[in-house]
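Tokens as discussed.
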């Protein structure tokens, strides 16, 4: 099975929340902790992943309203 990374974060609760949102819509997802940073005193990075056919739906579901508003503003020049 192929997985693609939508986002990389250092905040585990953020990855868990994204996973819950997508699960509610029937979209399989996973997150993988990319270790090694812990021994350096840094937070582990977490890669949040979905299957390729769900990429765009997941991006739409996880996008914020602020991003949507920015794209809908009329451009004045």
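Sequence:
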């Amino acid at each position: 099975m192929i997985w693609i990374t939508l986002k990389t974060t250092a905040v585990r609760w953020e990855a868990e929340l994204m996973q819950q949102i997508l699960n509610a819509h029937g979209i399989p997802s996973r997150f993988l902790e990319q270790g090694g940073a812990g021994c350096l005193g840094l937070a582990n990075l977490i890669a949040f992943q979905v299957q390729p056919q769900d990429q765009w739906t997941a991006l739409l579901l996880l996008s914020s309203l602020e991003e949507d508003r920015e794209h809908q503003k009329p451009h004045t020049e």
